[in-house]
Structure formats: C-alpha cells, structure tokens
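ok trying this again, last paste got cut off
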Amino acid sequence: MVTINSGSNPQIKEIVKLQKSARERKKKQMFVVEGYRLAGEAASSGRLRKLYLSESAVAECRAGEHWDTLGQYPHEVVADVVFRGMSDTVTPQGILGLAEMPCYSLDDILQDRRRSILLLDDIRDPGNLGTIMRTAEGADMSGVILSRESVDLFNPKVVRSTMGAIFRVPFYYAEDLVSAAGKVRQGGIPLYGTMMQGSILYTEADYRMGAAVVIGNEANGISEPIAALCEGVRIPMAGKLESLNAAVSAAIMMYEVFRQRCL
C-alpha cells in the first residue's frame, strides 16, 4: 500500500478542513473520529466510511481486537509527520476515521416512549456538551434538543468527550428553541429549568410521567423566553457558590429523572 507523505494530498487537506470547520462538516455531513475506540464505535453504528493509519501504528492497529471489523473499511497509511498535522490531539493514537453524521428529527425525540428530554439553551463549551451527551446515554434519556447557537456537536473535542454516545443518543438542533420547547409542552411533557430562584427543590418535582430538563448557558443561564415556559427547580448548594457547572447540573437533573422513572 502506498503511503501518503504530503500534507498537500487532497484527502489530508479535506480531513484538516473537517477538523477545523463546522461549516465544512455541515456541508459534507461528515466528521472525524480519532482513536481506536471511537473508530470502533463509528463502525458499530454503521457510519464509518474510511480509515487513516499512521505509518508507525499500522502493525498495532491491525493486531487490535476490533481489526476484523475495522479492516473491512477502506484505509490509507499516512506518514507520521503528516498524520500529526491532520490530528486534533497532542498525542495521536495513530488511527483516525471519517464518519457520516447521524441525523434525527424533533419527532424522533418527542415520540420516544421514555419521555425524558434534555434541552440545551446556548451551551458553548465543547467539554460540557460532550460530557452531557455521555451522561444522557447513561441516564437513558430520549434525546437532546439544542439551540442553534450551541457549540457544534461534531467539534473534535465534543466528539472525544462523548466517548461514543454521539452515535447512540438522538439529538436535534432547533432553529427556534422556543418553538421546539412549545412542541415539547404540547406533547404533555412539562419543562423544568434549573434556576437560582427555582420555586422547588429538584427532588420535589414529579418526573414520572415525563420531563424535559432545561440547562442554560454557562455564563448567563436560561434565556428569558425559555425560562417563561419552565417550572423553576433549584439544586441546593453549600458555601458561597453562585452556580454549578452546566454538565454537573445536567447530570444531577437527568439522573433524578431516571431514578424516578425506575421506581
């Protein structure tokens, strides 16, 4: 197999564009997965399209436990120095893949029997979003609805932080989050927003028949139009803290919804 030795190779240039540009990812409906685990997750989901292996990692990758599956996909060998240039990580694992974006509709989430939804109102931190998606899978949520201003789910850091949940948790970017929230309520699912001045403790609400948890922007909280649609709930805090990290608040709320649903 011929090794790609130049960063000017069209395939390499395309990978770099996908790593850096949300617009390019949206245009091509493709994104990059890095590392053996995420490549395997992409393959398991049926969304992996091609692999790239660094020259020094070829033997290790081909000896890996998942190579029986991964080896069925087209793959290229890339010189180590070129691979480092196309990778978004400081210490690349030597395997990188192109994956097709999953796609869901709002109805896919609203019609789920679990009736446990997370709404994200302008979440901007990639690490927070990735952690939230990973936790949403663990808490058995129906899906995640995001405002269009929220960080791109296929940002490389978000993808890594999801630990594969990006392939399993339904999501939907709403052009108008207020309208989407209204449709959630029309479906008989109440909205609960985490607020400093929430009227009740988060454990006092009854989520057993369905719940949509709203988490606001890291700096500004839930926007006023969305807050007007929510029942405010508060998470108790000791000390002089003004708020919790968005991903922590989301985890607390999602697991309380899950706990009540399992009773």
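PB: full thing came through this time. The chain has a mean pLDDT of 94.
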